[in-house]
Amino acid sequence: MAYRRLCGFYFFYFAALGVLAPYWSLYLQSLGFSPIAIGQLIALFMLSRIVAPNVWGWVADHRERRMQVVRVAAALTVVTFLGVFADSRFWWLGLVMLAFSFFWNASLPLVEVSVMNQVGREPGAYGRVRLWGSLGFIVTVVVVGALVQAHGAASIPPTLLVLMIGIWLFSLALPDVAAPTAAAPGRLRDAFWRPDVAVFLLACLLMQVSHGPYYTFYSIYLESHGYAKTVIGALWAFGVVCEIGVFLMSQPLMRGVALRRLLLVSFALASARWLLIGFFPDRLGVLICAQALHGATFGAFHAVGVQMVHRFFTGHHQHRGQAIYGSASFGVGGAIGSVCSGYSWSAWGATATFGLAALAAAAAFIVAYAGIRPRS
Fold first, then answer.
1. Contact 370/255 with Cβ under 8 angstroms?
2. DSSP secondary structure of 125-193
3. What is the pTM of this model?
4. ∠ Cα 121 58 15 (to 5°)
5. DSSP symbol at 369
6. Which terminal residue of the chain has fewer beta carbons within 10 Å of its beta carbon, N or C?
7. Does residue 364 contact residue 207 with C-beta atoms inside 8 Å?
């Protein structure tokens, strides 16, 4: 059954992300890298999001069997990741991370298109498939936290390799589905350079800049304040649980509240979240409240962002519009946030770095408030 195969792919894909996001920086720290070096290496992973979705999307558009591209990309992800075991010097790990992330970031956008082509007409079907990805993330952040606590950071690369093999195996079973054709209204650049679209993309970029310290140093930060790996994993997992809750409520929420207002609220809550994390690291209750805000700073933000891109870009422009959105926000914004947080962390410390993240989220709020016009 295609549904089960898609669920399995999502489970393993986001399970691997559940190792990369919380624990990869801990692994790099265990190798003796400085905060600046860690920020630069994590930025390489983000940078591939700028190029990979557009390159692989173009390749897939010129092939009848698009899932063949997914299978090749998944296999090359495994092959290139094996380089992690060959050497641990900065330049080598940088090349390996750039290579495997280029192939890693190719798979999901193509599978997303396939999923929507298969289940897009069934109300709630996409959410039921995507839910398995969130479950995979939750399982690994909890299990790997206990594993690292017991056996150290050296257990992270082998665990990640096993999960990447799982992605490849499930990709072999994914069915090919022909993409529907539709006329593209106008030129893509005409839609891209509309003032409200450009402002929206800038605000999303700033939002992801603000996430730089969180995705790069949050686990290191908590460990430095004496939290066990199991607690760190539980905090990451709790944030994703809140994200799932927002995803499940997003359809009725977006019917009753304007997208612009939801976007502004997510920016404001992101600023508050980084201040809570930066100034109250020793208060577990405050950190739990901050993680609850992940439902807004990622769940609501991403749900609204995808919906706004769907309205801004129509016809065949939708695929490239989503690629532009991902490249500008998670790619460029994520890379800038990772690099800048590495330098800030090294020069001024954690509290100042999360303070700057709060300013970036506040800047996103100001840009969106001033540049995105209210719509009925």
1. no
2. HHHHHHHHHHHHHHHHHHHHHHHHHHH-GGGHHHHHHHHHHHHHHHHTTPPP-PPP-----S-HHHHHT
3. 0.85
4. 65
5. H
6. C
7. yes
Q: Per residue of the chain (376 residues), what is the pLDDT tens digit? A: 477 888 899 999 999 999 998 999 999 999 999 999 999 999 988 888 888 877 876 776 666 667 888 899 999 999 999 999 999 999 999 999 999 999 988 888 777 767 666 654 554 456 677 778 888 999 999 999 999 999 999 999 999 999 999 999 999 988 766 555 554 455 656 666 678 888 999 999 999 999 999 999 999 999 999 999 999 999 999 999 998 888 777 767 777 678 889 999 999 999 999 999 999 999 999 999 999 999 999 888 887 887 787 777 765 555 667 677 888 888 899 999 999 999 999 999 999 999 999 999 999 999 999 998 876 3
DSSP class of 298: I
How far, in Å, CA of 358 to CA of 287, rounded?
15
Q: Are the C-beta atoms of 11 and 64 separated by less than 8 Å? A: no
- Name the residue type at position 349: G
The type of residue at 321 is G
DSSP codes, 225-270: TT--HHHHHHHHHHHHHHHHHHHHHHHHHHHHS-HHHHHHHHHHHH
Query: What sign does the dihedral 62-66-70-76 (CA atoms) show?
Result: negative
Structural domains of the chain ordered from first start: 1-174 (1.20.1250.20), 188-376 (1.20.1250.20)
Concatenating the DSSP letter of every residue in 324-347 gives HHHIIIIIIIHHHHHHHHHHHHHH
